[in-house]
Prior knowledge:
Layout: H1 14-21, H2 32-39, E1 45-47, E2 52-58, E3 63-69, E4 72-79, E5 92-96
Antiparallel strand pairs: 1-2, 2-3, 3-4, 4-5
Amino acid sequence: xxxxxxxxxxxxxxxxxxxxxxxxxxxxxxxxxxxxxxxxxxxxxxxxxxxxxxxxxxxxxxxxxxxxxxxxxxxxxxxxxxxxxxxxxxxxxxxxxxxxxx
Length: 102
């Protein structure tokens, strides 16, 4: 995997974010590298419980939160870009790992 500093900066274009994240085939259960290559790596991320890392991309009209565990995407949510709270409520779940054994 590439070092985080070698990824492009996080995309802020609504078009780029929508084109990538509205198509789960692009990222479902993939590694963070797949996402970072496509839409850049955000400078700010959060470390939740149980080893989950959370990344957020903000455009003007769309915001996306990606929750990862063990370096793999487990959930992608669309957020209100004006809601900057740490645990902002998701407007829509774009993709979520199926429950059950992995």
